[in-house]
Amino acid sequence: RKEVEQDPGPFNVPEGATVAFNCTYSNSASQSFFWYRQDCRKEPKLLMSVYSSGNEDGRFTAQLNRASQYISLLIRDSKLSDSATYLCVVNSMGTDKLIFGTGTRLQVFP
Amino acid sequence: DARVTQTPRHKVTEMGQEVTMRCQPILGHNTVFWYRQTMMQGLELLAYFRNRAPLDDSGMPKDRFSAEMPDATLATLKIQPSEPRDSAVYFCASGEIPGTAKFFGPGTRLTVL
After folding, report:
1. In this complex, do B100 and A44 lie within 8 Å of one another by their Cβ atoms?
2. Could you report the per-residue pLDDT of B17-60, keeping only the tens digit for each?
3. Which of A38, A55, B58, B99 is the most buried (most CB within 10 A)?
């Protein structure tokens, strides 16, 4: 079983839609959580960190459920420019290793 | 705007040749990571360094891969001899504080024929 699992998608949604991605992780000692975004043929870029109490950044909301070991990302009012692959990332306590999920592909259409 | 830089951006080589990839981390970042990305496996951690010391290279095939940090501004990843299955994008990333987000370079796209 992979340490971080995501639905690969693709999720095809119209502009203005709300879309949510989930991610599960297997190591209960994981301490830090992130969502990265990766555009085609580009490097992964930090979208947002995920905090225990949940956090919001504009149209993006991230949630963490430690008991069930999953992380979610909600995108409201989708834009064409949101089309990308969204990578769920965790790292374990005592290490500085970031473990990446394989990503969920989002395609927003007009 | 501080960035991680990587060279070369693209490399095409023949099986059996040596390949060296270079990375300049963001100034002041003391952890450096090498990742490999393929369609099948996604992003895999190959090795990482803190304060230039290798901390974990368990993800790296030891017989042909080696990673070093000759100084704080340069990390290298070497493959010798290269094989077609090494074809992938190799990313370098750096970070400042343990447990926080890391910043990626643009990657080296390697093709081994």
Report:
1. no
2. 999 999 999 999 999 999 999 988 889 999 999 999 998 888 89
3. A38
